[in-house]
Automatic annotation (TrEMBL):
One of its GO terms (cellular component) is cytosol. Its EC number is 1.-.-.-. It comes from Mycoplana azooxidifex. Keywords: Oxidoreductase. This is N-ethylmaleimide reductase.
Length: 358
């Protein structure tokens, strides 16, 4: 039996299929105002064959911004623009969660309000460079948040959740993957704090749990998901005992009765984190990274996941579910148009119908 096209309950919602569009930053917002461009509603509408869409990462407050031309959910203008996206997706019968993404130290003073230092749990500079308005630049040593400032950041996640709902989103996803602020707190190498937010695993997971508590308080657990990426080591994130860390984190997630746990993995760490953590989480499990129609179907049939998340394939194939259903050929993603630019490589990937007509 084909599982991908069966419905599934995720939090408050009955999704029409088990194909989820992955959160993907596309950097098509005004760099000054963080308002999404006019083409963005079309882009999401084209992909609303997905049972669930997870939006690109959206900053909760300007200090959470990490990349040029990424969008926010802070101002009335930002909310009004996002409303066009949620209306378009809902008109097509799909669901959309907003991914709330605070980049922490994976930012740069030139991207921060008042050219301030980016914030992080500890003043530890990540290795590497980032793309800014003036080209590639070294990361900087971030400002270590005080306990009072941590409370302000948590309040920003709360407001972002409220505003996302106001903009018509069906829920929110906490981006706790890929080396951004929440994972900077989780990981031992980026968190050298000696207070209640650092040191032991229990202390390092505290930030994520407090953020989730605030988001759940606004939206209800059944409208909040979380994305994690154990041992992906992206953005210079390293933890000394990742299996123990995520084992404890996932157990603690259960208290919130979340809409879902979304786990993505790249590379080939020796541990199969899907196998380790899926049974530990009491709720819908979204598996992501590197899936094809066949591997996704196999994972669903084996009960290893409840839904399958597709990134690059959805980016390049607006009608991905239809193509899967028909066993049709897939468009190839064009990496040169991933971040920034106009409609090229954004809303102009052809659907099967367009290709056939041509
Ligand atoms: C262009 C692009 C932008 C991405 N931006 C984000 C993002 O904003 N937030 C996030 O959690 N993951 C982001 N990702 C990672 C995807 O969500 C996904 O985990 C990854 O692409 C692996 O899945 P795939 O092999 O199906 O593409 C991005 C991936 C791509 C290709």
């Amino acid at each position: 039996m084909n599982q991908l096209f069966t419905s599934v309950r995720v939090g408050r919602y009955e999704l029409s299929n088990r194909l989820v569009m992955a959160p993907m930053t596309r950097s098509r917002a005004g760099n000054g105002d963080g308002v999404i461009a006019d083409a963005v509603p079309d882009y999401y509408e084209q992909r609303s064959g997905a049972g669930l869409i997870i939006s690109e990462g959206v900053y909760p407050s300007a200090s959470g911004k990490g990349y040029v031309s990424t969008p926010g959910i802070e101002t009335d203008a930002q909310i009004a623009a996002w409303k066009k996206v949620t209306d378009a997706v809902h008109a097509e019968g799909s669901r959309i969660f907003m991914q709330v993404m605070h980049c922490g130290r994976i930012s740069h003073p030139s991207i921060q309000p008042g050219n301030a230092l980016p914030v992080a749990p500890s003043a530890i500079k990540p290795a590497g460079q980032t793309w800014t308005a003036t080209g590639q630049q070294e990361f900087v040593t971030p400002h270590a948040l005080t306990v009072a400032e941590i409370q302000d950041v948590i309040a920003d996640y709360r407001s972002a959740t409220r505003r996302a709902l106001e903009a018509g989103f069906d829920g929110v996803e906490l981006h706790a993957a890929s080396g951004y602020l929440p994972e900077q707190f989780l990981a031992s190498e980026s968190n050298h704090r000696t207070d209640e937010y650092g040191g032991t695993i229990r202390n390092r997971i505290r930030f994520v749990l407090e953020v989730l508590a605030a988001m759940v308080d606004e939206a209800g657990g059944d409208r909040v998901g979380i994305k994690i990426s154990p041992e992906m080591n992206f953005n210079d994130i390293v933890d000394e005992k990742p299996q123990a860390l995520y084992w404890e984190l996932v157990e603690e997630l259960n208290q919130f009765s979340l809409a879902y746990l979304h786990l993505t993995r790249q590379g080939t760490p020796e541990m199969d984190y899907h196998a380790l953590l899926r049974p530990r989480f009491k709720g819908p499990y979204l598996m992501g990274a590197g899936l094809t129609k066949e591997t996704a179907e196999a994972a669903l049939q084996a009960g290893k996941a409840d839904a399958a998340v597709f990134g690059e394939l959805f980016l390049a194939n607006p009608d991905l579910p239809e193509r899967f259903r028909l066993g049709a050929a897939l468009n190839t993603p064009d990496r040169t148009t991933y971040y920034g630019g106009d409609e090229k490589g954004y809303t102009d990937y052809p659907t099967l119908k367009v290709t056939e007509a041509a």
